[in-house]
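Researcher: Quick test of sequence recovery. Tokens follow.
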């Protein structure tokens, strides 16, 4: 998201040129920056371990690539970009090349590009007017504003390609596989073991968990034959469903089940074809998740979870609730510990989530700039001066949106801190 329009510079005015530094001073500052970065990295490693180092630097790189997308497309479109910074707050180091100042600020919580004239409210020098964002064509404005999200999608496709190429494509088995069993469960006593695939029970083919539950209940507590596949061999066992302390369906045999997943090599050509499909599936799931989270029912559920610890625990146990950025960081750390494929999968989801969120049609998000550009194009008439939207009329809605977003994020953050984030990669 290009946020430089409202970025406060704590050291000097935005239009004042940076103080001239000698080569020695520049080298010393750069050296101090390198040493400071190394010390911060070491501190992160000491506090959270190497997975958190991977997470923090991955997120910083992703954010800066987002801003680089805005910067490159702005330059290509002929717009004037005066600053490109990593981080916010006091300036630690900078260097000016041409009309752009590049540098690093104290708090690496993001980054920004300053493109002149992002809204009609910005006062510009008359000489800069022709190269300001608001005076460019609609297509260029939409491209520059969308560039960050486009970068996220391209990153997601690239990550998906490498995940598929290096580790293979996931293939889901046809039959349910038995997962954690206790030695006192009816299934274990009947001879089932972890990893067995259930083919049929009491004469019924088992392809879904619903079919398994139905077959168990139809036994009426009597021993029934269960056909399983173990190490490619069919076995027939006898299991007696029973009521257990953790059973919620009447009768149980004490198994969890799911479809086994294996990896099939696909090669680079197969990975290229499957990457787009995988990203499309993630994008669809992400849009659904955001739609549910921002729906009246989702907001009501969030409020209920914040005020009811039991509701929050149930939502966490279900594994379906969305998380804050802190929760996303924790999930990334869990994924990093689990291996390269889970980490790549989480980074794909993160990039798609950022792409979708940034394109919401409201300032100060990138989608707000896109919406304004398209609205002005629709209101403009051929042969007349371009219509200019009065952004001041939109500000009450912007403030309301930001207030809602802050409360929403605060609620998610509270839940992540108070109830933790479960590790899905055990």
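Model:
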């Amino acid at each position: 998201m290009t946020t430089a329009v409202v970025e406060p510079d704590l050291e000097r005015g935005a239009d004042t040129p940076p103080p001239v530094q000698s080569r020695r001073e520049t080298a010393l500052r750069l050296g101090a920056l390198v040493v400071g970065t190394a010390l911060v990295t070491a501190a992160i490693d000491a506090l959270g371990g190497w997975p958190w180092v991977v997470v923090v630097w991955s997120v910083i790189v992703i954010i800066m690539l987002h801003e680089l997308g805005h910067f490159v497309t702005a330059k290509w479109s002929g717009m004037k970009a005066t600053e490109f910074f990593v981080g916010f707050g006091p300036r630690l180091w900078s260097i000016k090349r041409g009309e752009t100042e590049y540098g690093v600020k104290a708090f690496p919580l993001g980054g920004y590009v300053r493109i002149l004239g992002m809204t009609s409210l910005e006062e510009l020098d008359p000489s800069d007017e022709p190269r300001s964002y608001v005076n460019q064509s609609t297509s260029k404005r939409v491209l520059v504003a969308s560039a960050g999200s486009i970068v996220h999608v391209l990153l997601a496709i690239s990550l998906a390609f490498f995940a598929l190429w290096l580790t293979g494509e996931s293939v889901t088995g046809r039959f349910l596989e038995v997962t954690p069993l206790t030695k006192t469960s009816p299934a274990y006593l009947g001879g089932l073991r972890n990893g067995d695939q259930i083919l049929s029970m009491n004469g019924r083919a088992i392809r879904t968990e619903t079919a398994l539950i139905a077959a168990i209940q139809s036994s009426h507590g009597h021993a029934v034959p269960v056909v399983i596949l173990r190490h490619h061999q069919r076995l027939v066992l006898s299991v007696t469903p029973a009521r257990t302390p953790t059973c919620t369906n009447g009768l149980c045999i004490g198994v969890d089940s799911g479809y086994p997943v294996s990896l099939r090599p696909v090669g680079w050509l197969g990975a290229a074809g499957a990457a787009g499909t995988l990203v499309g599936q993630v994008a669809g799931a992400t849009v659904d998740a955001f739609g549910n989270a921002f729906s009246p029912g989702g907001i009501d559920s969030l409020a209920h979870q914040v005020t009811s610890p039991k509701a929050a625990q149930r939502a966490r146990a279900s594994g379906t609730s969305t998380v804050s950025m802190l929760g996303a960081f924790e999930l990334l750390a869990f994924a990093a510990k689990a291996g390269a494929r889970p980490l790549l999968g989480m980074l794909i989801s993160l990039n798609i989530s950022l792409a979708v969120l940034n394109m919401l049609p409201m300032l100060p998000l990138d989608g707000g700039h896109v919406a304004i550009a398209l609205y002005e194009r629709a209101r403009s008439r051929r042969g007349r001066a371009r219509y200019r939207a009065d952004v001041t009329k939109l500000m009450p809605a912007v403030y309301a949106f930001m207030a809602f977003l802050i409360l929403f994020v605060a609620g998610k953050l509270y839940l992540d801190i108070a109830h933790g984030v479960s590790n899905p990669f055990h």
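The longest helix spans residues 138-167.
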